[in-house]
Specification:
The protein is about 30% helix and about 25% strand. It is of the alpha/beta class. It starts with a helix and ends with a strand.
């Protein structure tokens, strides 16, 4: 590796990071083209079906791409999907070296992009800032490897672990800074999921309301017995599509009424409770690559028990309320050694609140 390789790869990662929430099931990818110590091309993948990062960078570079080094955060594709192979474009442009942060886990690529470049006489290397690149594309890697949506749980609690008072009041546990961050998260994730109890209690919109215009997430409601009020905002307001996840044992008349509002109903299991594993499989089949879980204690607990949560954003407010509703409601464990552990933790302060994030 040359001394400046890391600098250019970090620039490519920064460009890829800026497109979070825009690429649907596609990965976040950045590309930088460098020749004779100067950047001649920059590109990022902006949307599914649009040009990949490498193509944007090559268009910017033009003839200057010949003899250049390409720094790309993910192995260039070698197959024809919605766009032609990026490997062919790099070869045709006369790029002489390609530095990749990591290989593409997609079986349609998975090393074949690197092989195609090397067969054309282009020098390649893999692994520079690999951990950062894979973490950036944690959604894509999970979607490809596990054939299900990546699930990030977001919850807010008081110091004594409550998400609402005994009466169900939860507005507001956290302050404005934390709530603004949640809207940014909704922009990044393809869908927001809640349980029907949350809809009944709060009648939420589940939209991303940021300082700039945002991509709106799909809204998913887990509702085994179709208790969602027909006048709920999620059914009346068409800011984004709403999907109701229920079971085949639910009332067929209620299902038709819900579908008449424009919402979609998915049957996941025979009841009495939604089969959450099946729900994530069906949602992935709809190309929903990521879900921000904003459930109440019951849904949070059920998803944890089913081992379907990948990441957590846990907001803690400096408040104590005594009795109330727990963040996670499930049978629990008997030994501390069996506790569910959050790993790779990071902690930051947002106003008066603290955000703890990590992975299960």
């Amino acid at each position: 590796m040359l001394r400046n390789d890391e600098f250019y790869m970090r620039l490519a990662l920064q460009m890829a990071t800026a497109t979070q929430g825009q690429t649907n099931v596609n990965p976040l990818v950045g590309c930088v083209l460098v020749k004779d110590g100067a950047i001649v091309g920059l590109g990022a993948h902006l949307r599914r079906g649009g040009h990949h990062a490498e193509i944007h960078a090559l268009h910017m570079a033009g003839e200057a791409a010949r003899g250049a080094t390409a720094y790309v955060t993910l192995e260039p594709c070698s197959h024809t999907g919605k766009t032609p192979p990026c490997c062919d474009a790099l070869i045709a442009a006369g790029v002489t070296r390609v530095v990749m942060a990591c290989l593409d886990p997609n079986p349609l690529v998975s090393g074949s992009g690197r092989d195609a470049l090397e067969a054309a006489g282009i020098a390649t290397s893999v692994g520079l800032l690999q951990d950062e690149a894979q973490r950036l594309n944690e959604v894509f890697f999970t979607f490809i490897r596990k054939s299900r949506s990546f699930v990030a749980l977001k919850t807010a609690s008081t110091l004594d672990g409550k998400l609402a008072t005994a009466s169900g009041d939860s507005r507001w546990i956290t302050g404005e800074a934390a709530r603004a961050f949640v809207h940014e998260l909704r922009h990044r994730y393809a869908a927001v999921m809640v349980g029907v109890n949350t809809v009944i209690a709060d009648d939420p919109q589940l939209t991303a309301r940021c300082e700039v215009e945002s991509v709106q997430p799909l809204r998913i409601v887990v509702d085994s017995h179709l208790r969602i009020p027909i006048q709920a905002k999620l059914l009346r307001e068409q800011a984004a599509q709403t999907i109701i996840v229920t079971t085949s044992a639910s009332d067929a008349i209620l299902r038709r009424q819900i579908e008449q509002t424009g919402a979609r109903v998915l049957l996941c299991g025979d009841g009495p409770q939604v089969d959450l594993q099946e729900a994530l499989r069906q949602l992935a089949a709809l190309d929903i690559s990521s879900i921000l879980l904003e459930g109440g204690g019951t849904l949070n607990g059920a998803m944890l028990e089913a081992k379907l949560v990948d990441k957590a954003y846990l907001f803690v407010s400096p408040k104590i309320i005594g009795s109330g509703i727990n963040n996670f409601q499930f049978a629990g464990i008997e030994k501390m050694s069996e506790a569910i552990v959050l790993r790779e933790m990071s902690v930051e302060r947002l106003g008066d609140d603290v955000l703890i994030s990590g992975y299960f």
